[in-house]
Amino acid sequence: MIAKVIVDVPTSQTDRAFDYLIPEKWTGIISPGMRVVVPFGPRKIQGFVLKTEEDSTVAKMKAIEEVLDVEPILTNELLRLGDWLTEQTLCYKVSAYQVMLPAALRTKVKKEIRCLCSVKELPVALQPFFKEKGSIQWDHIQKEAPELLPELQKAVKKKLIDMNYRVQEKGKKKTEKFIRVAKHVNSLLEALQMIGARAHKQRELLTYLYEEGRAVSMKALLETGKTTRATVKGLIEKGFIVETDEEVYRDPFLEKEIKPTKPLPLTAAQEHAINPIFAAIERQVFEPFLLHGVTGSGKTEVYLQAIERVLANGKEAIVLVPEISLTPQMVQRFRARFGSLVAVLHSGLSMGEKYDEWRKIHRKEVKVVVGARSAVFAPFENLGIIIIDEEHESSYKQEENPRYHARDVAMYRGEFHHCPVVLGSATPALESYARAKRNVYTLLPLTERVNNRAMPTVEVVDMRDELRNGNRSMFSQALFEKLQQRLERKEQSVLFLNRRGYSTFVMCRDCGYVASCEHCDISFTYHRSHHSLKCHYCGHEERMPETCQSCGSEHIRFFGSGTQKVEEELARVLPEARVIRMDVDTTRKKGAHERLLTKFGQGDADILLGTQMIAKGLDFPNITLVGVLAADSMLHIPDFRATERTFQLLAQVSGRAGRHQLPGEVIVQTYTPDHYSIELVKANNYEQFYEAEMKYRRMSGYPPYYYLALVNVSHPELTKVIGVTEKIVHFLKDELSSQSVVLGPVVSPVARIKDRYRYQCLIKYKVEPNLTKILKEVQQHFLHETSRGQLQVNIDLQPYLFM
Ligand code: ADP
Ligand code: ZN
Ligand code: ZN
After folding, report:
1. 87 in the same domain as 35
2. Pocket probe mutation, ligand 1, options 262, 264, 294, 301, max atoms within 8 Å of Cβ
3. How far is CA 405 from the centre of its chain?
4. Which residues constitute the domain of residue 98?
């Protein structure tokens, strides 16, 4: 037998399956989706088994040297999905498989086999290995007795042993001693007779364990005085119970008790929205839905009840939430409904924690996964629904290889599993809404807030007038007064500052020189806490200069208004207000995010001041005022989605106010009050915004009227970059149909990063069946040069980032 293996060497020459012999002893053991170690040239490297076949056309084959998994870690579906990803994103096969797995599986970690039963219950051949210890090293058994692999595999299937990856993390304990009744004890009465009448305590413990019918934590038993060490020891020696090491999962969110919740009786509007989803679940058909519901319209309750139906049918659910709204509050709503059936995957977890969560899914211990983008690859085999909350969020697109969009992957998996995919948002992406209008997605509108709670009133303040009236503060008169009011009424406020477009840059007041990174064409960001300048592209850091580098003047200052500056201003004008600041700096430490929000939720602060990370998911009853400090800061970013993003963000932030009994008010401060994105947020009119924005997109030829592909070229020499980009543009113009537009070459918005010059060209197309093939040729042709020179060519299909 031979195996077709994708090796872990991400280059275009190795981007195909290689044939390897399967050694006799592993016939029938090695199957698709497992990882193996194979010789490759002089090296030994990891690879994924794609297929096994009887024969090969290759004359001289090497043999597989090691097996890394006892069971496949990629299902057949995920193997196929990998192929598809490769086509869709022009990435290497091995990158496609790796993106689906937790990082712990990508690094070389020690693996051990743990015995889950008493040694006597194991197959005889395995018993000698576990005599002394409950676990042995995988490497050890591979070297000493590779012929035992079939026995091991069988034992894993029977759950007598399991394979564990040792992701070492300091100060974390992850196994505990558990005890349970030995498997051979079939009758409690018989066992009790054998123990004898006088051993009261032993009889008591055995009876308890027998009735429990599962392994029980020894620590818990001892601590609650249910038994003693001597009793446990006695029963183990007599062979009635066994001691095992059980994994206790590291769970950052599960420390507190969560009060379970019951499904709420749905409102008529929610009923209306959920029924078509139920129908798709019952009929087991793929159907994409767009749940367009204003903030506070009860979308989450719809998700929860749809999932409940899926679970009742014995199936599984994936819920995607943008990283920044994956707050403990959000996760709790799912845990409160589905308890320990929920796994959570987000970037705040350590490598070990992520791996733990992934394993719960892999072992089918959970039925629901709530997570950020990559959770879309959760290895469920019986999916009943995929939900993408805040589907318009650009963080669903991965900005490195493979450049996939979670929405596309969700659609692929939905089709594969014949299940509904629900996209939810108050402000859907234009692309999605356009699809709903063409009935590609089924539109499910929720136009009102639950229980007729009013949408907050939005007041737009023209900051130019403020300046004319002599107000130089960053707070308008109206916002200041309303903040004061809230303090008096003991209600809470949220102040939002857009991070983007608001970085604090350093400029000379005399000559206008702006301090920027010498390796990248990007201005430095000032960091007050270190009194330093930092480049956000390459990480280069410098001390804040005393004098201007260009003219020597001492009048060098930092500009822009970061959250720290707002905080200082607040302390000056409203000294009695208790403020919590939430931004990248204050939430860097693990758990800080949660602590700050809990503090705010408990009423320990009057004002929550923050960036993007407070725009979503917050649901506190006492928030009655939301202030947006500079609504237009995002409007002028050179990106055709700038207007859409502004509208979406303002709608999101506004949605934080008045979600419960108290009515909400929103103040939007802006220098462009007449811009339609701001006017229509005020009118709370998505539909009209959609129409206006679509007109602009049609006129200027952008999505959803055209598809886009961005080709990025970079090299240390400017002339080389320009030359190559020109060649690419020529080639594309020749190859593509006449309806497609090729723009460029143009210099990228960030012209240099890490001493590499950057140029790009943009393809706008409608129908271009050979596009993938043509772009692959571009890649291949110029990647040839990569090995010699320093050229990089990156291709991004349906790009969201134009830097
Ligand atoms: P969205 O996700 O659309 O922003 P949520 O699901 O957070 O809205 O709902 C807003 C509020 O309304 C929440 O406090 C939620 O508990 C409540 N809610 C949702 N559905 C119902 C219902 N059917 N009956 C009563 N309250 C509801
Ligand atoms: Zn730099
Ligand atoms: Zn100067």
Report:
1. yes
2. 301
3. 11
4. 2-106
